[in-house]
Amino acid sequence: MATRARSPLALVLVVLAGAVLLVVAVSMLRGSSDDREQAASERAPGPLLAAIQTDDRAGFEAAFASDADERRISLLWDNLRELDVIALTPTAQEQAWQVVWRVPGESGVASHQVSPRWSCGPLRCELADIVQQPGMPAPLWLTGPISVHRAGAVAVIGGPDADQWLSPAARAAEQLSQTPSAVALLRPGALQVIEVPADADAFAQVLAQPALEFRGAGAITWTASSGGEVPTSEQVTSRIVVNPDATAGLTDGQRQSLMLHEQTHAATSWLAAPAAGRQWVSEGLAEWVRLRHPVADDSYPAAQPGGCVTGSVPADADFQGLGDTTDAYRWSEAAIGQIMSRPDATAVVQRLWRDPAEPLPALTSCG
Q1: Is residue 359 situated within a structural domain?
Q2: Residue 310, CA atoms < 13 Å, CB-side half-sphere
Q3: Which structural domain range is residue 150 located in?
Q4: What single string gives the DSSP state of each residue in 166-221?
């Protein structure tokens, strides 16, 4: 009996049908996996936060998948138990959590978005890791091992060399409190936190920008938030982040001088960011306070209250980038020095800070 040849059209239809079924199956599996991850993202933060807040290591470890990296889990546990974690909640952003935390004794909080990573089986997904949310500043405790060191009104948090900043920062805080002529402008927090990333990579993660962008900056003072809501009873605080590469060769006195400058920025954060074109007011005040308290091994000269100004008002851009910022800082410090000698100095500084249309007072020029 002759075998009938199969129609080419029928073969094409069979192949197409198989391909469609494969695509549908893959789509269903992918959708099912996404659904499982979403369910886990909503379910996991509660037990994890409870374990952190009750110092329950067994409960913390149980919140992770059985195949999660044990060393990574231990790192997160050791870091987080040094801190107070206030809230851990899913965000409206897909696969992101909002974590609100503080160093014990700190009056404000830091707020970060982080990204959970999942290990998914046929029925459910379990937490595998917590990592930096792409494009967002990372909390320092995600970047590597940390410890917390405290003295007086400051706390230093960071890697193995962080403790070398403790004494200089504590001395700077004492100096800040001994600047009565600026007391009405300075409102330091109960505890100023200084973050010291272990290396350039960690520094870049904390600021979510390449370390090269801050090559000329010894430290950055910023509002420690990557967005999102915090509990109504809490307020986001200002943190100082040390640039490890730029400060590697500083003496103890130079660290103290840098910390005084940055703590002045933090203590004036209640004024909010300066108006456009008025960065010189903020930088000038920080320099003026710093130079009121010279240290023996600092490379900068002692303060010259009321010193003359040379050149024109620095633009905001003159304090940024990799160029020489010396003239901008000198002009700003000299201008603020003259203003601070006035009886109405506090009011003048605030108006200049907040209002770009506020006229510059008459200043004494050099020459």
Answers
A1: no
A2: 8
A3: 141-354
A4: HHHHHHHHHHHTT-GGGTTT----SSEEEEE-SSHHHHHHHHTS-GGGGTT-SEEE
Whether residue 184 is found in the same domain as residue 315: yes
**Same-domain status, 113 and 172:** no
Phi and psi of 239, rounded to 5°? -120, 150
Domain count, the chain: 2
Half-sphere exposure of 133 (CA within 13 A, CB side): 21
Neighbouring C-beta atoms of residue 270, cutoff 10 Å? 12
- Does residue 363 form part of some domain? no
Same domain, 124 and 156: no
Question: In the predicted model, is pLDDT for residue 27 greater than 50?
Answer: no
Q: DSSP assignment of 276-297, as one string?
A: TT-HHHHHHHHHHHHHTS--TT
Which of 138, 172, 195 lies at the terminal end of a domain, its last residue?
138
123 pLDDT band, cuts 50/70/90, is confident
Distances (CA, A) of 155 to 18, 68, 151: 64, 32, 6
For Cα atoms 152, 112, 243, give the angle at the middle one, nearest 5 degrees: 55
264 — pLDDT class (breaks 50, 70, 90):
very high
pLDDT of residue 39: 79
Neighbours of 140 (CB within 10 A): 28
What pLDDT is stored for residue 10 in this prediction?
A: 54
Q: What percent of the chain has pLDDT over 70?
A: 87
For residue 40, the domain's CATH number is: 3.10.450
Q: Measured in whole angstroms, how far is the alpha carbon of residue 101 from the centre of its chain?
A: 12
Q: Residue 84: phi, psi to the nearest 5?
A: -105, 115
**Tell me, what's the pLDDT at 305?**
54
3-state secondary structure of 148: strand
Contacts of 160 (CB under 8 A, 6+ apart): 145, 198
Please give the average per-residue pLDDT across 78-103, as a whole number.
Answer: 92
Q: What's the one-letter identity of residue 89?
A: T
Residues 35 and 57 both lie in one domain: yes
Is 3 within the bounds of a domain? no
Handedness of CA 321, 296, 190, 45 (dihedral sign): positive
Residue 224 lies in a domain: yes
> Regarding predicted confidence, which is higher, 118 or 29?
118
- For residue 82, is pLDDT > 50? yes
